[in-house]
Amino acid sequence: MQINYKHQLNDLIKLRLKIIRPLLFLTIVPYFCFIGVIAFKPEMFSPFIFDTNISLGIFLGLVLILLIFIITVIYVYLANKFIEPQISVIRGNE
Amino acid sequence: MNKLILSILLFSNLSLASDGNGENNDISIIMFVLFVSVTLLITYWASKRSSTVDGFYTAGGNITGLQNGLAISGDFMSAASFLGISGLVYLTGFDGLIYSIGFLIGWPIILLLIAEPLRNLGKYSFADVVSFRLNQRPIRILAACGSLSTVILYLIAQMVGAGKLIEILFGLPYYSAVMIVGGLMILYVTFGGMLATTWVQIIKAILLLFGATVIALLVLFQFNFDLNLFFNEATSIHKKGITILSPGGLISDPISAVSLGLALMFGTAGLPHILMRFFTVPNAMQARKSVAYATGFIGYFYLLTFIIGFGAIILISNNPAYLDTSNTLIGGNNMAAIHLADAVGGEILLGFISAVAFATILAVVSGLTLAGASAISHDLYANAYLKGKQSEKNEMFISKLATILLGGLTIYLGIIFQNQNVAFMVGLAFAIAASANFPLLLLSIYWKKLTTKGAVIGGSLGLFSAITFVVLGPVVWVDILGNASPIFPYKYPALFSMTITFTTIWVFSSFDKSENGYNEIKKFDSQYFRSQTGIGIDAKTTH
User: Fold this and answer.
1) CATH number for the domain running over B2-422
2) Above 50 in pLDDT, residue B14?
């Protein structure tokens, strides 16, 4: 690795972190909150939402499945849009 | 997870044949023979393209993101998770969802942290990545031990479950079922390598998604797609009533909750047969896409199993045709999805779903065997034993030999574990993956100061402690070995074993002042450059 594109690599890593960190947070925190409620206060998940027969736990569980998928889609979108061009620049310089 | 496989095991207690099973068998056998014929043709086609080591392990690296996404989801949607999770939902309602989410949560972790560096650094196995800048021999041996323990535990659980399931669905004796599965698996992998295994996996994933979608749609159709009515009906029929909509004590104490959560979250990122799939795509961009596709398919599949489980509560739990004398489901709770297929779609759907379940088992064990074979031939033989000096032809021969040996071993273990409780094995596989394979992979990619010494000591302790804690814990020590009380009090060891791994790796790497350690740290920057950019990926790796 040459010194002259070391700063480009640093930019790439910074960009990656900027994208990955919030998404990682969005993955880990809701999941452990979900598990936490089940372990500590399971009754919190019992009430029905709105006027339905669907419990809060089932609703949030299904939302979590959706969220997990959305996180992967967001990452692919952001990575293709922002990370790939930066890698191409570095590749071009090499 | 443990419960799922346990209930598959309970199948054995069942005397076969319910009413009308003879005709069902005909349809499912026709469909199964069709599946086997098509996959054998694919194997023949693939065999001409798998004559190189690269072709054998990575399908030439030309699988697209969508294809790989389907194949990954195929690897992950095993018969145990299809029948087991829908059975668990049938039995407990909400608690089934906890497992579904647990199995899904590992995917963003793989995507955000592992997939791209793995693709950029590795060639055939995740040990390529861990040993990239570390001392080949000890690291390869350690990684191969981690891979093989995970793969063999998984294989035993799948094989025993498969034998019991096929015994019920097709009326085949347990031994023949195990032999057929083992024999076909050896054929696919030995001759067709990764290319055939991938296509078997893709076809099976499509069939399974299609079959599960049809069942779910037919169920919801009966309720005019009104979820309100659907859940209302389920709670009024289920004997636990409204409590099936909230947590029911699957996880009770906080330590078990966190420990299980960690094992599921990080275990997926340490499963060798899943990690291996990332070498079949041409670059990091396709690797990334394949995870998003896979997550979509798997997430959708879990939604379906949830509907199927609740559908079974409504439509079959009160139907005498599906119950035995003691008022439980014929074949056990894991048969919920199978009976439901019959209830909503008649014999044709039942036959189709049975054939798909068989196909699923075949595809999953093939993927596992291929991953195990790569650990033996690529890591242990070619790199640890011969130090990378072997000829290509020789490695190919050892790969096929390893496949046949592993296949034989699996059949043998399937038979000796027939009447054993293997329920804990998938859980243990996940614990090992999370406590040994994943930390090694993660730290080798991201932590500059990792040295061979730290990796070997920490990784071995992680592997050893995960196994020890499970053996001394409630599941093996008390339930299987019959001791009065467990030496290690928790069912899930990951919280403790992962802590041991990370701490010892950190301590022994930090205090490693050897010249080797210094040189390994010096190589980190160029490895990091390659892992982040993929530059150098096409050049032959020289260690």
Assistant:
1) 1.20.1730.10
2) no
